[in-house]
Amino acid sequence: MAFRKVTDSILYVGVNDHEVDLFEGQYVVPNGMAYNSYVILDDKIAVMDTVDIHFAQEWLNNIAEALDGKKPTYLVVQHMEPDHSASIAEFLKVYPDAIVVGNAKTFVMMQQFFGADVAPNREVVANKGTLELGSHTLTFVFAPMVHWPEVMVTYDAADKVLFSADGFGKFGALDVEEDWDCEARRYYIGIVGKYGAQVQALLKVAATLDIQIICPLHGPVLTENLGHYIEKYDIWSSYKVESEGVMIAYASVYGNTKKAAEKLAETLKAKGCPKVVLRDLARSDMSENIEDAFRYGKLVLASITYNGDVFPFMHAFLHGLTERSYQNRTLGVIENGTWAPTAGRIIKSAFEKSKNITWLDTTVTIKSAMNAANDAQIEAMADELMKG
Ligand SMILES: Cc1cc2nc3c(=O)[nH]c(=O)nc-3n(C[C@H](O)[C@H](O)[C@H](O)COP(=O)(O)O)c2cc1C
Asked: Its family (predicted)?
């Protein structure tokens, strides 16, 4: 069966993608990706969003099976990112009479992607505007920058369903069992992380609705324990510390900076630190590193000085943090340089515009290889990290 029931009248018609190499051009997805789409069966039938163009035919087949000969009245477009919108034209070839529902910004983007002639039958909705299907009434709530400007989510009061667009999505196809939190966090921090304020605004609206089911555009339909997922979104979007622990992220060429990072990790563990995450920035997944930096409250950045700058992987990491509004954290620095160690100054300057960053008093400055004074600095840094 190519579709499945979410409720008696809402059917899942999405697809799994195990072919994508990098999602959104940068994220590894070892368990693939799901592009979700839903059909709401009523006097008038609505299809909620489309899928990635490579799966257009499979998705259209799912819809045809779900409709069993009926025709959809509406195609609702909540988000114009191509993993959800690229099959609009294919859909309209099969169902040319369908009315495309979106907001003013949706249709500007649709014209840019597909040209002026696409979707001649359209209904432009306003924020909090509604669409009557029969027993279902859809209410559209604009969610600009969660995570594109045209994004809107949709509430169905009949079945108490929130169609949440990219909100509450995760990496991973639906035919693979895996933990929600981990891949939802990596997805959220990576893709939506910058837009915490906008997610907070959406959560405030969601709190006023009776929501029993969340239907996102990626990841599983959420039907139970919704408080857990909403709490996670609240933590992530308010940049709160999720888990106690220290992350040590290092960039080293000849292994001396690595040794210092390892020594700090061992010292912290010996002192009873609840969690120490040690990462070689050149040899680990950048999106997981960024995810963990947001997860834990304390972060030590260890880098060589490299042509008067920091090592390129550290550079990418720092940018990955600050562009996602990294804030409310305690940071420390281990720098190394053979003739003029300036990595620490560069690391600190990267956070000049970041909110509520507390720097450890101890900075470890290594000149080529660790010496006795560095050992003492590492010890002092560990003691500081263990405080409060
Ligand atoms: C290509 C290259 C450029 C470097 N540029 C600098 C520099 O501008 N200033 C400096 O003090 N050290 C510089 N170094 C030395 C590194 O900081 C050196 O790798 C470090 O002192 C030893 O740490 P490691 O064993 O962790 O690599 C450079 C090293 C390399 C390989």
From this structure: In the N-terminal section; belongs to the zinc metallo-hydrolase group 3 family.
